[in-house]
Amino acid sequence: MTRVRLTWLIVLAVVLSFASMTAIAADLPEDVQKWCDMIKERYGGTTITVSMGTHPSTDAFRKMVDEFTELTGINVKWDIISEPQLRPLHMTQASAGTTSFDVWMVDGFYISEYVAKDTLVPISEFTANTELTPDWFNYQDIIPAYRQAIASVNGVPYAVPTAGESRFIAYRKDLFEQYNIELPQTTDELLEVARFFAEEVPGIYGFATRAQRGIFFASGWLHVLYQFSEGWIDQQTGEILADMPEVIESLKYWNELIRTGPPDAASYTHEECSSAFMSGDVAIWFDATAIATWLIDPEKSSVYDQVGFIAPPEGPLGRYAGLAGWSLAVPKLTNQKEAAWAFIVWMTSEFNGPKYVRNGGVLVRDSLLNDPEITATHPDMYRALGDTFAAAKNLTDKGLVWIPPTWMANRVLDLAGTLGNQALIGDITEEEACQRLAEELRRMQAIWN
C-alpha cells in the first residue's frame, strides 16, 4: 500500500468518525444534547467501573455504552460476575472501607442489608439536582411498585430499578381449548385445573414452578403467601406470624399445587420449571415475568405459539403479585458519585427506555408498558403484565413489601425455603415446617431488631 493511499484512508476514517459523532449529536433532542455537553465538560475523561452480574440488562447496557462514552466523555470499565457473587463482593469491600466500583447492581432481595450497613447513597442527593437529573430521565415513570419494593427502604429510594420482575401464570392455550377449561381466576380454581390436567390428561402434568430447597422454594412460596396471610413476619410490629393457621394453609396449598407437577419438581429452579413447560409436558407455569420471553421463543420452546398469560389468582385475602429484580446504585465509598449517576441516568432514562428494551433489557417503566410498538409484539403477555403489576400494587397499597424487609432477608428466605421443601417431599408436615420456622425466626429477632 502506498503512503499516499494510506494517508487518504486515515483521512477518510477520521471524516467518517466525525460524521458518525455529528449524526449522533444531530439526532438528539436539544435538552438531551445540552445535558450531554454539560456532563462532558464536567466529567469528560473520567473512568468509572461498573459492577454487574450476568443478566439481560447487563447485555443491553453494554450495547449502549459506546454512545454514552462518545456523548459524555466518561469511559466505562465493566466488572461482570455471576449474580450470586455480587452481594458478597460488595459487602466484603464495604466492610474493608473501600470499593473498586462506582456503580453497583443491587438485588432487590438484599436492598435492606445494603441500607442497614450504610453502603448506598440515597438517590435524592442526585434527583434534587436538576442539572444532573434532567426531566427526560423521569424517575416517576418507573412502575411505582418497583420503585417502592426493590429499590427503596422505609420509603427512601436508594437505587434505580433496571430489571424488575413479578410472577405470573403461563398456560397452554391449546390444552385449555381442547378440554374447554376456563382460565383460573382464584386459588381454588387454579388448583382444580392443575389437578384436572395431572389426573385426567395422559402425558401432561398440571403445574410447574421453582421449588428447590432454600431460597428458590421460598421465592416460589411467596407467589401465594400474601393471598392467604400477612406473611411470615408482621411488617409493622415485627411479630412472628409464620406459625399462624393462614400461613400453614398457604404452604399446604402451595405444596398441593407443586405435587400436580413432575415427580422431580422439588429440585426445580426457574430454569428447570421453564424447561418442563417449554418441552410441552406441563399445562400451567407460574414463575418470573422477566423470563417469560423464553416460553414464546421458537428456538427454546416447543409450544411457543400456544402460550397464553394471566395474572396471579385471587386468594382469600385478595389478588397480589410478587416484586423482585435488580437496580443500579451508587456506593457511598466511590469518589466519582456524579459521573456514576450520569451513567445511571443515561442507561435507565425514559428517553433511552425503548432502546434498552430493544437491546434485550427488562421492562420497568409505565411508558414502555403502554408503548404500542412494544406491546404489539405479544399483546397477551403485556396485557397480563399490566394486570400483574396492578396486583403487585395491591400489596404495596396494603403497606407490605413482597420480600421480608430485614437485612437478614437472605437467612429468612433460606430457612423458609428449606423447611417448606422438607414438607413438600414429606420429611415433615406443613404444620411442623411453619412451627419450626416461627421458632427459629423468634430466636433471630434479637439480631435483626
Can you offer a commentary on this structure?
- There is one protein chain.
- The protein has 20 helices and 13 strands.
- By secondary structure, the protein is α/β, with parallel strands linked by helices.
- It folds into 2 domains: 189 residues, 3-Layer(aba) Sandwich (D-Maltodextrin-Binding Protein, domain 2); 197 residues, Periplasmic binding protein-like II (D-Maltodextrin-Binding Protein, domain 2), CATH 3.40.190.
- A hairpin with a 2-residue loop joins strand 11 and strand 12.
- Helix 10 packs across helix 19 and helix 19 packs antiparallel against helix 20.
- It is globular and about 70 Å long.
Give a nutshell description of this structure.
This protein has 449 residues and is α/β, with parallel strands linked by helices.
Mean pLDDT: 91
CATH topology of the largest domain: D-Maltodextrin-Binding Protein, domain 2
Number of strand elements: 13
Beta-strand share of residues: 5-15%
- What shape does the CA trace take? globular
**CATH 2nd-level architecture of the largest domain:** 3-Layer(aba) Sandwich
The CA-CA distance between the termini, in Å, is: 74 Å
Helix content: 40-55%
If strands are numbered along the chain, what order do they take across the biggest sheet? 2-1-3-13-6
- H/I helix tally: 20
- Which class best fits the helix and strand makeup? alpha/beta
CATH superfamily of the largest domain: Periplasmic binding protein-like II
* Main sheet: strands, sense, barrel: 5 strands, mixed
CATH class of the largest domain: Alpha Beta
Oligomer: single chain
Number of domain modules:
2
Unreliable spans: 1-26
